Amino acid sequence: MILYRNNEGYPDPTASKAIHEADKPPEEVTTAIRRIKTIAEWHGFDVTGRIWLRDKLTGREYR
What we know:
Layout: H1 13-23, H2 27-42, E1 53-54, E2 61-62
Antiparallel strand pairs: 1-2
């Protein structure tokens, strides 16, 4: 985990933890990507590039 430092240069573990948690994709996204890779493996393929997903409700993209 990268420790965030405030404007004065002091470590700020509370902000660091909040930023780290906010940057994580939802569990549904990680599950979907894992399933896509598994299905590709079943059919004899490898996923060699990035998988981009867009939430239909919010429009947010996950890369």
